[in-house]
Amino acid sequence: MPVQALREEIQKGVDFYGWKENEVLVAVMGIQLVNDVTLIRHAYVLTFYQRKGLGEKLLKYLLSLAETSKIYVGTWEAARWAVSFYQKFGFELVSTEEKNKLLKTYWNIPARQVETSVVLALKRVTK
Q1: CA gap 99, 106 in Å, rounded
Q2: Coil, strand or helix at 62
Q3: Which residue ranges in the chain fall short of pLDDT 70?
Q4: Domains, the chain, with CATH or none
Q5: What integer pLDDT is reported at residue 125 of this predicted model?
Q6: pTM confidence score
Q7: 57, HSE (Cβ side, Cα atoms, 13 Å)
Q8: What is d(CA 70, CA 20) in angstroms, rounded to the nearest whole number?
Q9: How big is the CA angle at 59 (ends 77 and 25), to the nearest 5 degrees?
Q10: Cα–Cα distance list, 121 to 98, 101, 116 (Å)
Q11: How many other CB atoms are there within 10 angstroms of residue 8's CB atom?
Q12: Fewer Cβ atoms within 10 Å of its own Cβ: the N or the C terminal residue of the chain?
């Protein structure tokens, strides 16, 4: 993600958390409160560090910070590995109709991205 895009996401309220190995940032994931829901945003792990549990650690930490009972994550439909990752933690794909509504309500993305994305939901009792 370019630095300017990162700054814009932070200005929009995305809080980023990262994981360092040997003082090098190797994984990041963001969390954003939007109205009455929590969004998990921008999850990235450097290729060499994938499948080592870093995404899991970050996701579990962010879920512990979530203050709402509705938690959503959006990703590319073609990124089956990402969909499977979130499903391991109890996220479930929402219907196409609900996806379209959620993406238009809680995200600010182009129409083409809406068409090619999915949304997964994790609903839980508020702390």
Answers
A1: 10
A2: helix
A3: 123-127
A4: 3-123 (3.40.630.30)
A5: 53
A6: 0.89
A7: 14
A8: 29
A9: 100
A10: 10, 13, 17
A11: 12
A12: C
